[in-house]
Please model this.
Amino acid sequence: MTAKARPPSAALPRGAALIAVSRGGIELARSLKGALDGARIHALAGRLPADAGGIDEVFTETAAHLRRLFEAGRPIVAICAAGIVVRALGPLACDKRAEPPVVAVAEDGSAAVPLLGGHQGANALARAIAGLTGGVAAVTTAGEVRLGLALDDPPPGWRLANPEAAKQVAAALISGEPVRLVLEAGDGGWLSGSGLAFDEAAGLAIRVSDRSGPPAERELLLHPPVLALGLGCERGTPPQQVIGLARETLAANGLSDKAVACIASVDLKEDEPAVHALSQALGVPARFFAAARLEEETPRLANPSAAVFRATGCHGVAEGAALAAAGIPSELVVPKVKSDRATVAIARAREPIDFGSMGRPRGVLHVLGIGPGGRGWLTPEAAAALHRSSDVVGYGLYLDLIADLTAAKTRHASAIGEEEARVRKALALAAEGREVALVSSGDAGIYGLAALVFELVDREDRPDWNRLEIAVAPGVSAVQAAAARVGAPLGHDFCAVSLSDLLTPSDEIADKLEAAAKADFVVALYNPASPGRRRQLAAARDIFLEHRAPDTPVVLARNLGREGESVEVIRLAELSPDKADMLTLVLVGNSRTRRVTRGRRLWVYTPRGYSSKGAEAKPRKAGAGR
Model:
């Protein structure tokens, strides 16, 4: 069965992985791909048709591939039996609010079953697919089936004071029993506009309020995100002081912390730990405004301050930020309250606050390595950073290697040799308040882009860059991958030297090679040769031959983890520029490095000395050594 037309919904999850394990599944995946934003086809090896057009990735183990995508937070549309998906992902399902949407689709398109992440988009995705194929969406969530909404999973920002009461109220609505709706704050449009019949005289109630206090008996209490908490503080204010001040202020004014939509402040505080500590303590985002924007709120301030204006460029940080975040119409319900080093104020909006459309978050730059190329070498930390990021920046080839994980992201690709421009682009995007992934191959800190990030931040000392959150996620380096492929050549002391003279003079490279050869290090040679640079590898070989035997093992590892991977072991005397290129990692053994052949397999290892240690540890016989 093929898809009919693009679904009308604009709220569907983007970047779904369409998993096909049969040729019929591939046909359906092809028709769905163009109708679902950012979708990519993943097909099982061995089931590929003669025409493999449109297939974006091939996998060999279905269960392992499903688990990898699920752990990376990727929406999954599995065109196969639901049981396959259940058995693969069942052990990983533990948090319905954090799980990505997973839908199983019959090969003929007759049924689309949301298995996980129903409230994260799986129900909507199943309905859209059923609409495309003419099939049935087997949505089983009772609230959505009967009511068209889920009381236990309200819109973003809304929080339940007593989630255990949601089932009772939903059951009453489903059975036609009367329920009262009480709106004390926010418009509650998703409830009042749902078409449900509410009865003002009913004993069972749904109450929407920003007030503190426990829910009443037979009441579901919902807190809408209508409060904006503005914060100003001195540099280095202890986080616990700020958290205490905020909680005390909310409690003193009878306001619930569950109705707080966001923490708001001036952009000068983007890197202030206390602001983010309060954001984390209340479980809400932090948003920041330029001083000029806060100055626009001066007519609405209760306590404008000339001293604050001289320090920040606006007449009120806490009050101004609260009002800016709450928008218009809104009111300042708690004028600024001071401690010795911090100030808070609270504004109330008439409608739920959409924190995604006001202010901006602190920019985040993830600097990460994706490994040499094989997906199995992408670390969970790097995969999680990619999942969280809105933008990915990198060399085009490296971005192609992770295209299935970044289909829903904004991609910024550049050519080889444009490293500084690439890093500047990533920093500039993060400075706009985005969460950005800057991608290197291998490990970003080993001949990757991490050092250049910190060099530019150090060199230019720009306030917008200085306020960023920069996190480096380690990756599997090419030297680790090459060593693992061939055995354990790095079992003893080793070092790495790049033979590229673009950034390091040739004489300096030669000095390093000489020192490494004399010290008997196993040496990893990065960037060994290019079409225009041939002499460095030959020169390196000659330096090593002055200190090591001609038959010293040398490992040539090329295209690791990618199509066309090759690993070869040669003698040091045979090492020549024609045996390596920029995709090759060269490992030169030391005086202890050995080859060992068992069966048809050749291994290379460098012993650390355990055999001699064992000999020394053996007890001597009587009279030995005399």
Notes: The first strand starts at residue 17 and ends at 20. The chain has 21 helices and 29 strands. Residues 239-252 form the longest helix (14 residues). Confidence is low (pLDDT under 50) at residues 1-10, 617-626.
